[in-house]
Description:
This protein is an alpha+beta fold. The protein has one domain (12-85). Helices cover 38% and strands 10% of the residues. It has helices at 12-22, 36-43, 51-67; strands at residues 34-35, 76-79, 82-85. Strands 1-3-2 form a three-stranded antiparallel β-sheet. Strand 2 (76-79) and strand 3 form a beta hairpin. Helix 1 (12-22) crosses helix 2. It starts with 11 loop residues before the first helix and ends in an 11-residue tail after the last strand.
Amino acid sequence: MGGKVYSTLLSDRRCDMVACLLQPPAPFCAGELIPEEVLCARVWPGEKNGRTELNTLLYRLRHWLAEEGIDPSPLFERQANGLRFCLAPEATVAVR
């Protein structure tokens, strides 16, 4: 962000959500709005979780990033039916 590299450790579910946003299943691409049902299926496979759990997870992720010194406000865009990780137009994604 802003030419600076940040690193943090994420819990399993937070990591799963970020990984799905950055490396979503086809036909979606990194930086696109990923529907809630796609995210929930990836983060909680085989479980019945939805908007409330997703919002709670996003809240906790933002809080964690802020505690780590990473401003989460420019990173995520929440829309009515989904979430996206905001990427610069020329950005590339490498999930390790």
